[in-house]
Structure formats: structure tokens, C-alpha cells
């Protein structure tokens, strides 16, 4: 495979079988990169790297139980506490160079629910 110039200066790639594939090249600013999503109806499964820290803080705050991230890790390993994650809707994902729009502080609340296994 090698780069070639063909058809009056167009850039292409000549494959091992001799065929030439046209390369599309754009100048900066001619194209806009977007988030690579299959559709806006998609959901993305997310899991936080800070799961143990976050869960230990929630247990301390909501249940009054002093727990360390290490306590939570051991409870998950023993099957006493299921690991969990959350869904992100594709419409909330933005591409590079797109502005981050923060919600207003008034009347915009996020609630997290944790379902216990019976």
C-alpha cells in the first residue's frame, strides 16, 4: 500500500492489488467532528471509576453507616452489594469542541435511585 497522486493531482492510496482508493482530505474548519453515536435514541451504559468512593460516601450520608471504599469493595466481592452504573442518553453526549451547557441552579435537580436486590 502506498500514497499516489492520480486524476490531475488527487491524492489516493494504491492497494496491494493495484487498485486506487480516493482519499478525502479536508482543510481545518471545513468539517465538524461530532460524537460517534449510532442514533439519538441510543442509551449508553456507564460505570463510574469512583464507584467505591461514591458508595461509601452515600452510605455514610444517607444511612449513617461509616463505610470506607475498601468496605464497599469487599461487600461487592462477597455479593452483599451489587455493583451499579447508570444510563446516559445519547442526546446528552456532545462532540469535541462543542460547548458544555450547564443546567440552571434553580429547579433543576438530579435524583439517583439505587435498587436493592431482594
Give your account of this protein's structure:
The chain is an alpha+beta fold. The chain folds into 2 domains: 1-26, no CATH class; 38-95, no CATH class. Helices cover 19% and strands 18% of the residues. The protein has 2 helices and 5 strands; from the N terminus they run ββββααβ. The protein has helices at 51-63, 69-77, and strands at residues 2-6, 10-14, 20-22, 43-46, 86-89. It has a 3-stranded antiparallel sheet, with no helix packed on it. A two-stranded antiparallel sheet has the order 4-5. A hairpin with a 3-residue loop joins strand 1 and strand 2 (10-14). Helix 1 crosses helix 2. The radius of gyration is 25 Å and the shape is elongated. 3% of the residues are buried. The mean pLDDT is 80.
Give a topology summary.
Layout: E1 2-6, E2 10-14, E3 20-22, E4 43-46, H1 51-63, H2 69-77, E5 86-89
Antiparallel strand pairs: 1-2, 2-3, 4-5
Features:
118 residues, alpha+beta, three-stranded antiparallel sheet, two-stranded antiparallel sheet, elongated
